[in-house]
Amino acid sequence: MTAIPQPRKSPRQLRSQHTVETILQATARILATHGYAGTNTNLIAETAGVSVGSLYQYFPNKNALIAALHDRHDNQMLDVIDQVLNSNPAATLRERVAAIVQAMLHAHLLEPALHRVLEREFPLFDLPREHSRADQDIHRRMRHLLEFHRDEIAQQDRDLATYVVLRIMESLVHAAALEPPAGFSPAQLEQAVVDAVMGYLGTPAARPAPRRTAAKKAARR
């Protein structure tokens, strides 16, 4: 497996966190505009309004910055799911799935050029799911959601269902944001993704009516 570039250290104080976020925002803009070849740490530091030395406190090179952008994206998706799960406790599963898909698509459309570069040119800089805390947290949140709404779905293996639902969302949202088909509105694309997820989950099979025994039949006569 290709080694994923790592940051030198993680920011702990609020001011340091703000600095790192500013650096990542600058990296995102430059990478989306100039591509990998036109991106360098000097330009990133200048755009972020920090010294190159401050940048190097956290990131050894631009590859580590690109890996951090992948991690930042995963945490944004985790925040999206948390916001949906923490709102409207009376919502149905379909309503929650629709809210998650809408928020995910909106988040991708904010920086489509950046996501296009990250997904097409640097997928290997994204941590494998088994090593990504954000991905693991997303899986746990979705698994809990399906378990909470188990009476609304037909899939009995909720572990497998969690995997499939997340892959459907991820694949279709990326496609809708990065390569949207002509002639369809964002609302139509959102609805199509929701329909795909709910179509897979299905509805619980109707339980057969209990059979009446001979004694019950006799008692009714």
From TrEMBL:
Which lineage do the record's taxonomy fields give for this organism? Bacteria, Pseudomonadati, Pseudomonadota, Betaproteobacteria, Burkholderiales
Q: Which residues bind DNA?
A: 40-59
Q: Which organism is it from?
A: Achromobacter veterisilvae
Kindly list the residue ranges recorded as spanning the membrane.
none
Q: Which domain of life is it from?
A: Bacteria
Where's the HTH tetR-type domain?
17-77
The molecule here is called TetR/AcrR family transcriptional regulator
Q: List the PROSITE patterns hit by this protein, alphabetically.
A: HTH_TETR_2
Keyword entries, A-Z: DNA-binding, Transcription, Transcription regulation
| Keyword DNA-binding belongs to the record | yes
PANTHER family for the chain? HTH-TYPE TRANSCRIPTIONAL REGULATOR BETI, HTH-TYPE TRANSCRIPTIONAL REGULATOR RUTR
One matching Pfam family: TetR_C_15
InterPro entries reported for this sequence:
Homeodomain-like_sf, HTH-type_TetR-like_transc_reg, HTH_TetR, TetR_C_15
